[in-house]
Amino acid sequence: MIRYALICEHAHEFEGWFGSSADFDDQSARGLVACPVCDTTAVGKQIMAPSVAGTKKTASPDLSPQMRSMVMEAMGKVRAHVEENFDYVGDAFAGEARAIHEGRSEDRGIYGEASPAEIKALKADGVPIAPLPPAAPKKSDVN
What we know:
By secondary structure, this protein is of the alpha+beta class. The chain has helices at 21-29, 65-85, 93-101, 116-124; strands at residues 2-8, 13-18, 43-45, 87-90, 110-112.
């Protein structure tokens, strides 16, 4: 796993974890990397020092390790709740979200995938949507 310090076009700073550098490039090109604050997909990498094995670990100045752990746990619980209780609609998400919003489909919680253009159109039309927190990395994928 690779951790990148990211920044959006509105100067919101955040971090993202990716399986490889190519994963970031691919997801970014497809508009799947979005700012958690403003949801823009105009996101780039910040300059950051690489983590080197054997160096002393220091906590992020804005979040203690305990706080970071609590946030990650809460995000995992949100994702698990959505996956257990909402209907997965795959790439039909945009159409189904719009149909629910307009009363043409049963009012229920759904999740799935949408393109950046579909997300932008849904937001412009007032359809309430939110990004789903990313899945935690599998322990087998983490060194």
